[in-house]
Design goal:
Elements: E1 2-9, E2 16-22, E3 34-40, H1 45-51, H2 55-58, H3 80-90, E4 107-113, H4 121-129, E5 133-138, E6 154-157, H5 160-168, E7 173-177, E8 186-188, H6 190-193, E9 215-219
Parallel strand pairs: 3-4, 4-5, 5-6, 6-7, 7-9, 8-9
Antiparallel strand pairs: 1-2, 2-3
Length: 231
Amino acid sequence: MATLIHKGKSAYNGEEILGAVTQSSSNKKTGKVDTLWILPAKEEPHAATKSGGDASICGDCPHRRDHGALGDCYVLPFQAPLSIFRSLKRSGFVQTLLGRFKAKGKTLRLGGYGDPAMLPEGLVASLVDQYKSHLGYTHQWERKWAAWTRRFCMASVDSVEQAKKAWSKGWRTFRVSYDGVMAANEILCPSVTHGVQCADCTLCNGATDGDRRKNIVILAHGAKSGKLITV
């Protein structure tokens, strides 16, 4: 069941978007986490990937299906995102106040689909405050209007060069690697090396000033993960 917590304009292009939370998860990698989904408001997710309407929720992410430089997003928009969108539509897109949302002791995943930077800072901050821990990622880390997400999200990067740029700005990074090469301050995702689920891991929760924790690397996955990107 999905709970609608936001209806508003995308920070990227001003188009109408939705923010919804599903409770618990059967995802083997994440474990039992609640998940925030950012969805286009005017068309179904799989249709938005074809029309380009997914820019409102994904910005210029290179992994966008049909419109990204890589096009290898592992999320299948005609599966969970579509199911959630249709569930919200059937309920009349009725919004629930965050104050009614009880989530103590749980972990929140910011962005099962879509980029949390598209949402208002206050909304995300209030939502995170209701959880024991969280994890999040943004491809909008170079944009000034998304700078606030640094304390909640990892900068999603696609090369060591991009990672170094993000590090210089105080971000911690989550990097998709296509060759397995890592820098000295990076480690492979603990789900790969130790079988740790995201629900029990706190490494992907953004950065604080002077944060010296390692940055995370995961090997490329998805149907088009053999492609390379030049940045």
